[in-house]
Amino acid sequence: MGKVKVLVTGGAGFIGSNISDSLIEEGYEVIVVDDLSTGKEKNINDRARFYRLDIRDVGLEDVFRRERPDYVSHQAAQMDVRRSVSDPIFDAKVNVLGAINVFQNCLKYDVKKVIFASSGGAIYGEQDIFPAPETHPLRPLSPYGITKLVAEHYLYYYKNVFNLDHVILRYANVYGPRQDPFGEAGVVAIFIQKMLSGEQPFINGDGCQTRDFVYVGDVVQANLLAFTSDSSENIFNVGTGLETSINEIFDHLADIMAPSVKKEFGPPKKGEQRRSVIDSSRAKETLRWGPKVSISEGLKRTYEYFKTA
Q1: I want to staple 238 with a disulfide (CB 3.0 to 4.6 A). Which of 69, 154, 222, 277 is the partner?
Q2: Which is it for the CA torsion 33, 35, 38, 42, positive or negative?
Q3: Low pLDDT (below 70) residues in the chain
Q4: Range of the structural domain that residue 37 is part of
Q5: Residue 1 pLDDT
């Protein structure tokens, strides 16, 4: 019996490359598919086989035919909320049509299970309950949130009509080493890079908006547990259940890096959620998963990475 083979889409990206590294450490054989539009070749593990390819490409089938993966970790996405607002057509092409291309190939080549990276922040919209459980009404307020939800509905269809097994992980705001310093979710990376280069970071609005910041190493752990889960539950929030304001993130980083830097505020971003925090009790009960890295420790590790990157 050979090694279990996992195809990771977006495996040169921030989260996907961290997942790939851990899968390889755990003894899996890893295939990376990434078009390098936002991912970086240097993030790809030397022991992974790499195909430079867009997930919308018809050539994706050749990779499935050649590699015959046992599992697929679908991390590739158009992940910038603001870009989804300015270019919803592009967002839908990648996050819906790209996802369907991946799922169709999973079906055709008998993939045992798909792990899908969804969004715990964007999918619930303005929350009624804090933190939001998986049963919270789904009212996304951005094209990005809508396309993640559409992909979830496709997985429901593939499961119920064709019995394609899947686990959906709804991530909170993931941060950590290899995060790109752009996009809304990249606030940690943006602040660190600005402070390292002596520039003034700007806070959008009053900085009191809150997010559930979860460290990438903890997210990777949730993915590894999802591969081996045999539970009938298949949608899990992956977050800390704690709200941290943008001002607090700024203060933490200033303490570590640049105590003299002062807060400066810019205009608020249109359509930005005020509060976003998710409840991961289900993942705790079913996957035996819980976040281990505190925000202060995670920010320290992220700063150390950027300092030498």
Answers
A1: 222
A2: positive
A3: 1, 182-185
A4: 5-173+214-239
A5: 58
Domain match, 130 and 58 both: yes
Instruction: Evaluate whether 176 touches 217 at the Cβ level (below 8 Å).
Output: yes
Based on the fold, state whether residues 191 and 226 are members of the same structural domain: no
β-bridge pairing 29-34 and 5-9:
parallel
Token match 């909320």: residue?
A: 81
Write down the catalytic residue from 51, 144, 154, 303: 144
Is 71 annotated in the active site? no
Residue 245's SS3 state is strand
Q: Are residues 14 and 151 in the same domain?
A: yes
Say whether both 140 and 64 belong to one domain: yes
Cβ atoms 295, 252 nearer than 8 A? yes
Task: Determine what percent of the chain is predicted with pLDDT higher than 90.
Answer: 93
Identify the pLDDT of residue 244: 98
Summarised one tens digit per residue, pLDDT across range 206-250 is 999 999 999 999 999 999 999 999 999 999 999 999 999 999 999
Q: Are residues 162 and 95 in the same domain?
A: yes
Q: How many domains does the chain have?
A: 2
DSSP 26-60: TT-EEEEEE--SSS-GGGS-TTSEEEE--TTSTTH
Does residue 286 belong to any structural domain of this protein?
no
Looking at the structure, tell me whether residues 202 and 53 fall in a common domain: no
Contact 192, 302 (CB under 8 A): yes
How many CB atoms are closer than 10 A to CB 300? 16
